[in-house]
């Protein structure tokens, strides 16, 4: 049973290669929704925070496997973090392809252990590495979800900082007697970076759909899960529909958001400081033991 482990492993690798080759060569009818999302990801690839961390180009073998898996089992079974993916500018096929790649690495890595030991002349049961491969593949399948969640949290924090500056720009435009719609568009055209690109895209989409610009900002807030953008959209809606003066309200909103961001930064700094207590304490104890041990040893020997 043990000498057959390399042959089993080689057969599994060959079968996997043949499956990937057939899946890559087979042309499937693309899903229109996924195709539109891929086009949007290409447009945002130079401005999205997840573009640099994207695991390969769109249309790679893993992406095609991910698209095929989504088409067969559906997104409800895989439970994709769609809101986080939209924020990072990634398609579901890319994310599922990355999950497949991580799972394959987790599945194959422990299986190499008995093969190497057998080739070296040792003996090791193939059952334990096989079970370990399945467990590691299951854990590795969840790693991309954790990475996306962490990157999305960082991107949302960056989005909140940009929204605070955007509110200040809108206040300046309103102080210059610009209308609600004009103030939102001019303020978005001033800033740079991926956040302002998303703001401009949302305003343009609302204009093409015949909606007021604050509706575009409200939709973007719901899609990305950034409520800090929905509040100024509601404020500007009041100004546009009822003609109310919202300059002081926008200023108060911007000031409150800056205070919340400052509080979050202080909390993060405190958490980082608390995490350093244990390593520093252990280091001090080790140094004290290293310095005091010779003296204690001499006293005990006397």
Protein described:
This protein is mainly alpha-helical and 302 residues long. The protein folds into two domains: 5-152, no CATH class; 156-275. Helix content is 79%, strand content 0%. Helix 1 (5-25) crosses helix 3, helix 5 crosses helix 8 and helix 6 (92-108) packs antiparallel against helix 8. It is flat. It starts with a helix and ends with a helix. Mean pLDDT is 76; it is low at 41-46 and 51-58.
DSSP helix fraction: over 70%
Structural class determined from secondary elements: mainly alpha
H/E element string? HHHHHHHHHHHHHH
Total strand segments: 0
Query: What profile does the largest beta sheet have?
Result: none
| Radius of gyration, in angstroms, nearest whole number | 28 Å
Overall mean confidence score, pLDDT: 76
Alpha-carbon distance between the termini?
A: 62 Å
- Determine the number of helices (DSSP H or I, runs of at least 4 residues): 14
Low-confidence stretches: 41-46, 51-58
Number of domains: 2
Tell me the strand percentage band: under 5%
**Shape summary:** flat
What brief labels describe this structure?
single chain; 302 residues; mainly alpha; flat
Architecture blueprint of SSEs:
Blueprint: H1 5-25, H2 32-43, H3 61-73, H4 75-78, H5 82-88, H6 92-108, H7 112-119, H8 127-175, H9 180-190, H10 194-208, H11 213-224, H12 227-242, H13 247-275, H14 277-301
Helix pairs in contact: 1-3, 3-6, 5-8, 6-8, 8-9, 8-13, 9-10, 10-11, 11-12, 12-13
